[in-house]
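re: ur question from yesterday

yeah so i grabbed the chain u mentioned. its 299 aa long if i counted rite. heres the sequnce exactly as i have it in my notes:
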Amino acid sequence: MKSTALLTTSIGSYPKRSGKVRDLYDLGEKLLIVATDRISAYDVVMPNGIPDKGRVLTQISAFWFNRLEDITPNHLLSTAMRDLPDDLRESEELDGRFMLCRKADVVPIECVVRGYLAGSGWGEYKQSGTVCGIPLAGKLKQCSQLPEPIFTPATKAEQGEHDENISFERACELTGEDLMTELRDKSIALYAKARDLAAEKGIILADTKFEWGKTSSGELVLIDEALTPDSSRFWPADTYKPGKDQSSFDKQFVRNYLDKVEFNRTPPGPVLPAEVVQKTRAKYIEAYTRLTGQEFPWK
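ran it thru and got these structure tokens back, copy pasting raw so excuse formatting
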């Protein structure tokens, strides 16, 4: 593994703010979003990252933004170095990991679509037969496919806090019923198309979350990332079997390690061993190659 993890960026003198994974730079009329190799689990950012993870997230997002434009416009303008401002075009740390985007005011709701019974949804179903308050048919197993995709919104938490699942009615109170209805319908349509495209590649898209924003002209656009291993559960179809946890193309090895060392899910996180880092990197890259059908350019 030749690459080293890029944990932070410093791009000229542009105003910067950072999330758990991405560094955002204000370029005036446009926004530069740079995906670092930071990795978080249980809402805690680990002290070491996963080399090339940011490139995987960026390239998969661009792949999906391009293929879903018939359903909704998005904020992506370019991932080409030539479209950056003159003073940034030679920046090696940006190579493959940036998106030049339109600015948008963020709608403060995580738009989650679930097609399978996993994660917190499975935990709730076992207790009450519901997922985010939505009643489901009885006798479903862990990771069972749902009769149809369900929309389960959540509030966007501050860094270090957990998103909170809320009802559709509560989401309507926060954003307005017309907007929330449009977000629900578009999110489910995006999930359905992506699910079918992933299935052609032998991958199950179990669930995903979308983020939305409104441009200065009032246009509703898909923002942030799209259908990456960080925002979605991807499972290999050839090993899928309901009734148990599935192998996945994401930070599974990181979570398993943290559970093994009984991490208390509060900062700071432990340093990840080299083997965990390497296996996780391989899973992210495998997700890229299987979804896009292309070799990963940054070996």
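noticed a couple things. Residues 3 and 257 are 22 Å apart (CA to CA). also The mean pLDDT is 94.
anyway ttyl
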